[in-house]
Amino acid sequence: MSEYTITYIKNENPKEKPQSDQLSFGKYFTDHMFIQDYNPDRGWHNPRIVPYQPLTLDPAAIVFHYGQTVFEGLKAYRTKRDNIQLFRPDKNMERLNRSNDRLCIPQIDEEFAIDAIKHLVHIDQEWVPDAPGTSLYIRPFVISTEPYLGVSPSATYQFIVILSPVGAYYEAGINPVKIAVENQFVRAVQGGTGEAKTAGNYASSLKAQEIVSKEGYAQVLWLDGVEKKYIEEVGSMNVFFKINGEIVTPELNGSILEGVTRNSVIQMLKHWDLPVTERKITMEELYQHYQDGALEEAFGSGTAAVISPIGELAWEGHQMVINESKTGPIAKRLYETLTGIQYGTEDDIFNWTTKVSYK
Amino acid sequence: MSEYTITYIKNENPKEKPQSDQLSFGKYFTDHMFIQDYNPDRGWHNPRIVPYQPLTLDPAAIVFHYGQTVFEGLKAYRTKRDNIQLFRPDKNMERLNRSNDRLCIPQIDEEFAIDAIKHLVHIDQEWVPDAPGTSLYIRPFVISTEPYLGVSPSATYQFIVILSPVGAYYEAGINPVKIAVENQFVRAVQGGTGEAKTAGNYASSLKAQEIVSKEGYAQVLWLDGVEKKYIEEVGSMNVFFKINGEIVTPELNGSILEGVTRNSVIQMLKHWDLPVTERKITMEELYQHYQDGALEEAFGSGTAAVISPIGELAWEGHQMVINESKTGPIAKRLYETLTGIQYGTEDDIFNWTTKVSYK
């Protein structure tokens, strides 16, 4: 049997599926999961789809102590023709391997991983919800499993994929959010792990998020960890600003996560012949544009919300109300076009989607 | 039954203990472990000592994805009178709670945790090795267990303590190491999680450590993440320099871990009426002192090695050989005094040790 043959053990006790209108994010999980093991002798081996089940790990496993782990997030969408499709999974698997490199985790076979994801989604296809705005969230992740308390890369790993049906991000259509600029806490710094999708970045963000939530803000906007001047990203999304007709997003610098949606937004804006620039931008500059009336729109981009308009930005005592707290035309057009491609109601001009098929 | 009554389930199949001369670090684990659960209704509850066993966790548990976890490290020592004692466990539990605060994890009861550790060590007392320089490493840690993919603090946790008999850090007595100053990667930054003992800091350090290991260095010396000028810590230890008779260590700044051994070193130096200063120090300054012949000693401090003399420091092409690569008199005196207190051969003038007794 090839190392690439996926064993399948069917779940004989499938769960009851939640109603489409009761889905939130990341609370329900499907009947099956994908697991593959790594050891130095065999490399990645024993790929299998098994009933969704607890992981059994030695309490000394490195992941618990030293956080050697990476993850990805993407979605499967049910189209109006009742096909199921993924959006740019190749970009997620490329990034997973870049994260693996930063965390000293062995590279995975990207093509095989996409096949495994498709296989798993196919088996649990009835879990892909069909209500507007709903989807099946896909969470691939790698954990370090060696029971060893020395601070060094693990000898053994598991690559796991779990699936979670998720509700519409906006219950009443796309809707602007209030964001607070974070001045005390730092998410990441150049030379750190900011551009990797790894647990520590998110652990680090919990405290700031907890504080601003109590003050009524949906997320924080992170500044650079060095000078606390330059805009990096917002919550777990990348961020865009429309200034005097030009769309600006912070350039990748080693501490900003390279979002798949960010990349898609840039490509789409260029396709529309709209001016889009990746460059450094400070909060000082943004506030100046705001005062001059040149800040026309602000929005985040990410897998969960696709596009999240920013209606209000709080910074050093200033309450910046952007576009009268309404969704701007660029944010709306991007949201409709990208979700249209994802749900198969718009032409997929860039070949971004791939059908889930079972070999 | 009180929430503070520890249930005990004896391991009826004890393992064979490794030979004292075959111990390394963190590879062997004892017959029992301590576990306590947390949920919002009951708080910390159900403390129990059970046979050492795998943890069973939902694959969506927050610890795997967002690294919400903290840990501690301390040791139990077998004295010449065949007592078993701990070194300053109160400092470790204080720090565990500071780490908990930064990571949005509920506070633990420090006194009860120390009692639980003593209880566990007492049960596995035969695992405390007796060869010179050996000890029983104690690893308390908290993991977030809620199965939820939203980025937010977990509703549930486990506080766990495992034990590992460890060998002498220096097989042939205290011995200077070669250290490389890290210029590319960053361990932590102010506003991040550097002063917390949490997984992400260690995940972030793996890559730099991997690179310098290949070049023959034992550890890296971390500079600050903002200007990459100021000395922070070395590997997983704090660092001290003797310059013109004065002992200097980087001042705590939010990104340096507050070491228990660091604190003990400072207290001991003051007791000896030796000048010790906590202040900012740059690599530029250190190199200048080196060239002037004023850099007399350099050493790290930490639970694993206690005191680790630095014989050579590589920085921007300079190979700084310190004290002819020999252990200096201050490092030697600190090592002998601190290990003397830990193993009960020196008077415990500060009341730092506490006997393991079973109530």
TrEMBL record, chains A, B:
Catalytic function, reaction form: L-valine + 2-oxoglutarate = 3-methyl-2-oxobutanoate + L-glutamate; L-isoleucine + 2-oxoglutarate = (S)-3-methyl-2-oxopentanoate + L-glutamate; L-leucine + 2-oxoglutarate = 4-methyl-2-oxopentanoate + L-glutamate
Keyword Lipoprotein: no
InterPro entries: Aminotrans_IV (IPR001544), Aminotrans_IV_CS (IPR018300), Aminotransferase-like (IPR036038), B_amino_transII (IPR005786), BCAT-like_C (IPR043132), BCAT-like_N (IPR043131), BCAT_family (IPR033939)
Keywords: Amino-acid biosynthesis, Aminotransferase, Branched-chain amino acid biosynthesis, Pyridoxal phosphate, Transferase
Pathway: Amino-acid biosynthesis; L-valine biosynthesis; L-valine from pyruvate: step 4/4; Amino-acid biosynthesis; L-leucine biosynthesis; L-leucine from 3-methyl-2-oxobutanoate: step 4/4; Amino-acid biosynthesis; L-isoleucine biosynthesis; L-isoleucine from 2-oxobutanoate: step 4/4
Pfam families on file: Aminotran_4 (PF01063)
Top EC category: transferase
UniProt-listed Enzyme Commission number(s): 2.6.1.42
Cofactor: pyridoxal 5'-phosphate
Molecular function GO terms recorded: branched-chain-amino-acid transaminase activity
NCBIfam families, per the entry: ilvE_II, PRK13357.1
Similarity comment: family membership: Belongs to the class-IV pyridoxal-phosphate-dependent aminotransferase family.
Protein name listed in UniProt: Branched-chain-amino-acid aminotransferase
